[in-house]
Amino acid sequence: HYFQLYKVLIHPIPKITMNDSFKAEDFMTNFRSLVTVKPDMDVLDAMYLLLSKKRSGIPVVERDGTLVGTFSEKDCIKFFLKTEDHSKKSNLVSDIMKNRDEVVTVEVSTSIVECSEIFAKGPYLRLPVMKDNKLMGQLSRSDVLRCICQQKGL
């Protein structure tokens, strides 16, 4: 048994190759299907939306669809750890969201391989997908896995 385990451990794991012709737009969730919030939305209402829609994070957009940041479970937890009065309803999403300049985004034309590398190297669960500075959709780690499975015929 030890020898078989040793063989598994010393042999390199074969690299999964992906077709570089697939782009973020091929597997992203389209903007119309995205759950989003506005920066002036109440934090508690936005938290309820996260929970009810079973999302860990969502884009924050202006009325015209311009991406201004992201709002996540982690942002909420950090906020409530440092907030003393949890009962008041005067805190806005814009008070705790990750601002646009802190958000890593990709273009619609970014290859799935490049998106995979961003996911593999960073703590990101999702990437806003942009075109001409407008939010077009969102790509998640699950979307990349779906691409891999599709390429492998699963």
Q: Which structural class fits the helix and strand makeup? A: alpha+beta
Q: Give me the Rg, rounded.
A: 19 Å
Q: How confident overall, as mean pLDDT?
A: 85
Portion in beta strands: 15-25%
Q: What is the helix fraction of residues, given as a range?
A: 25-40%
Query: What is the string of helix and strand elements?
Result: HHEHEEHHEEHEEH
Strand order in space, largest sheet: 1-7-6-5
Question: How would you describe this structure to a colleague?
Answer:
38% of the residues lie in helices and 19% in strands. The protein has 154 residues and is α+β, with helices and mostly antiparallel strands. The strands form two sheets. It has a four-stranded mixed sheet with strand order 1-7-6-5. Strands 2-3-4 form a three-stranded antiparallel sheet. Strand 6 (126-131) and strand 7 form a beta hairpin. It has helices spanning 2-10, 24-27, 43-52, 73-82, 93-96, 112-121, 141-151; strands spanning 29-30, 57-61, 67-72, 98-99, 106-107, 126-131, 134-140.
